Amino acid sequence: MLSIYQDWDQSVAELRRQMATLLDEFDVGWAAQPSVFGGTKTWPRVNLADAGEQLVVSGEVPGLSSKDIQVSLEHDVLTISGERKLQPPSGYSLHRQEREGFKFVRSFGLPCKIEAEKVSATVTNGILTVLLPKSAEAQPKRIEVRAT
Asked: Which residue would you say has higher pLDDT here, 142 or 3?
């Protein structure tokens, strides 16, 4: 008899975990706002890759233009911030609004020194790409191996 209740408790716990995951994935407030179960979602999601002579940060920013995004570098910390403002076109009245405006800020500690004056950022088809050239002392060095 006790086994039935233990199995039921485990089933309910698993269902609760799956529901939390499902609601977290489809949470309306997707710009780092608290979710139903107390966690937060970070946005934009980014990748940081080391390409040898430079670091490459790429992130998804659908619906945002270059005017909506700011990128800054200070003391080896990259900060990406922005805002999406949603307003109906002039002359239109709003009958339903499911998409919301939001602000976001993300900061990343970089693993090496960067040539700040050579950093570039572009946004194309909803993808933000930031190229961060490494300083000379942070770039990989090739060491020649000699036979003796």
From this structure: 142
Q: How many CB atoms lie within 10 A of CB 138?
A: 16
Q: Has this prediction a pTM greater than 0.70? A: no
Structural domain tally of the chain? 2
Helix (H/G/I), strand (E/B), else coil: 99? coil
Q: Domain of 128?
A: 42-87+100-138
Identify each DSSP E strand in the chain by its residue range: 46-50, 54-60, 69-74, 77-84, 102-109, 120-124, 127-133
Whether residue 60 sits in one domain with residue 34 = no
Considering the domain architecture, whether residues 7 and 22 belong to the same structural domain is answered as yes
pLDDT for residue 105: 92
Tokens describing residue 128? 């933000």
pLDDT averaged over every residue in the chain: 82
pLDDT score of 106: 92
Expressed in percent and rounded to 5, the helix, strand and coil fractions of the chain are 20, 35, 45
Helices (H), the chain: 2-25
When pLDDT is cut at 50, 70 and 90, the band that residue 137 belongs to is confident
